[in-house]
Recover the amino acids of this structure.
């Protein structure tokens, strides 16, 4: 007859979690509602993104004759000539990036075991997300399909050399 083994299983996310001799400190002493707001943001941004993506697909693929084959440089240039579509695409970009970044942040929290690893992965995620948001926003608002003073041979066919 064997004696029962009494094992104490630590509560995940407890303050002093120790696994295989490695101590993890995943709780903070300061209570805040960041996770609740992040959860709420994911639900709201997901609903808004769903609407924005379907509008984006409808306008880009179904309104114009030719479907996906009609989307080219001239189509994007004509679309981004309107401030409405610039803001629309910027909101789509920002919401998609922030939604995805928040999702990856949760995955990092769930799967990165060490505090230092989790910290550097989140720093890398924040830097790359900020870079993509900044670069995408600059492209949307500084896009000039017909720059003045450019070589006419390099301009798109719809640009007037003058």
């Amino acid at each position: 007859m064997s004696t029962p083994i009494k094992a104490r299983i630590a509560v995940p996310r407890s303050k002093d979690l120790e696994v295989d001799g490695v101590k993890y400190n995943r709780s903070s002493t300061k209570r805040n509602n960041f996770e609740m707001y992040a959860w709420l943001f994911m639900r709201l941004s997901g609903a808004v993104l769903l609407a924005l993506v379907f509008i984006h697909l409808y306008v880009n693929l179904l309104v114009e004759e030719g479907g996906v084959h009609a989307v080219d440089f001239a189509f994007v240039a004509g679309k981004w000539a309107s401030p409405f579509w610039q803001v629309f695409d910027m909101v789509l970009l920002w919401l998609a990036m922030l939604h995805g970044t928040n999702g990856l942040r949760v995955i990092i929290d769930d799967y990165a075991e060490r505090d230092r690893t989790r910290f550097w992965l989140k720093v890398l995620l924040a830097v790359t997300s900020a870079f993509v948001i900044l670069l995408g926003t600059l492209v949307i608002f500084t896009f000039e399909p017909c720059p003045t003073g450019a070589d006419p041979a390099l301009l798109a066919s719809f640009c007037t050399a003058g």
About this structure: The radius of gyration is 25 Å.
